[in-house]
Amino acid sequence: RKEVEQDPGPFNVPEGATVAFNCTYSNSASQSFFWYRQDCRKEPKLLMSVYSSGNEDGRFTAQLNRASQYISLLIRDSKLSDSATYLCVVRTGTASKLTFGTGTRLQVTL
Amino acid sequence: NAGVTQTPKFQVLKTGQSMTLQCAQDMNHEYMSWYRQDPGMGLRLIHYSVGAGITDQGEVPNGYNVSRSTTEDFPLRLLSAAPSQTSVYFCASSLAGTSNNEQFFGPGTRLTVL
Predict the structure, then answer these.
(1) Antiparallel, parallel or unpaired: β A11-14 and A104-109
(2) Do B100 and A32 touch (CB under 8 A)?
(3) Ordered mean pLDDT values, 10 residues apiece, chain B (114 residues)
(4) Cβ contact A4–B42 (<8 Å)
(5) What is the pLDDT of residue A93?
(6) Rounded to a whole number, what is the distance in Å from the CA of A16 to chain B's nearest CA?
(7) Taking CA atoms, what residue in A is nearest to B88?
(8) How far is CA A68 from CA A52, B88, B92, in A?
(9) Per the omega criterion (within 30 degrees of 0), is the bond before A10 cis?
(10) Model pLDDT, residue A31
């Protein structure tokens, strides 16, 4: 079983739609959780950290369920510019070492 | 600040050749790491360093060497290139510690081994 699992997609949604991505992780000792965004043929960039209480950044909302070892990302009012691959990322053990999911591809269309 | 820089952007090697991928950061970050990204596999950690003079293996270290003689530089050496090392390589850096420090990535090196 992969340490971090994501549905690869693609998710094709119209502009303005709400879309949700899910991610599960296998190590219950995992300590920190993130969503990174990666545009085609570019480097990953931090979108947001994920906190147990849930957190929001504009149109983006992240949730963490430690009991189910489950992370989610909700994007409201999708824009064309949201088209990218979204990587679920987990930190476990040694400081700063990250484990990446394979990513979920989102395509927002007119 | 230039952030994290990587050279070269593209490279083609023949099987058995050796080369060094360069990575540098100007943010005074203690932690640096190398990943490879392959289709369907996500990013996998090759080697990492928590400070000058300290390196350790990640998930897929075989065939690669690293050194960290300065805080700024973290080169990745391919000892004898193999077609299985065809991949996109990303270098990343962050402040060390257990807090939620963002990792900053370089633009990547696209390597093809024939």
Answers:
(1) parallel
(2) yes
(3) 94 97 96 93 92 94 97 97 97 79 92 97
(4) yes
(5) 73
(6) 29
(7) A41
(8) 12, 33, 30
(9) yes
(10) 87
- Could you tell me which of B58, B43, B53 has the C-alpha nearest to residue B88? B43
User: CA-to-CA distance for A105 and A82, rounded, in angstroms?
Assistant: 10
Of A41, A49, A100, the CB nearest to B100: A49
Segment B107-110 long-range contacts (CB within 8 Å, at least 24 positions apart): B107/A42, B107/A43, B107/B5, B107/B6, B107/B9, B108/A41, B108/A42, B108/A43, B108/B6, B108/B9, B108/B37, B109/B6, B109/B7, B109/B8, B109/B9, B109/B10, B109/B11, B109/B21, B110/B9, B110/B10, B110/B11
Name the closest residue on chain B to residue A101, using Cα atoms.
Answer: B42
CA A4 to chain centre: 11
| Token pair of B100 as six digits | 């939620």
Enter the DSSP assignment of B70: S
Query: What is the tens place of the pLDDT at every residue in A89-110?
Result: 999 876 668 899 999 999 999 9
B40 touches chain A (CB under 8 A): yes
Residue range A49-70: average pLDDT? 94
CA A73/CA A58 separation, integer angstroms = 12
Nearest to A44 among B33, B40, B105 (CB): B105
Pairwise CA distance, residues B58 & B44, whole Å: 8
Please give the Cα distance from B2 to B29 (Å, whole number): 13
Give contacts of A4 with chain B, Cβ < 8 Å: 42
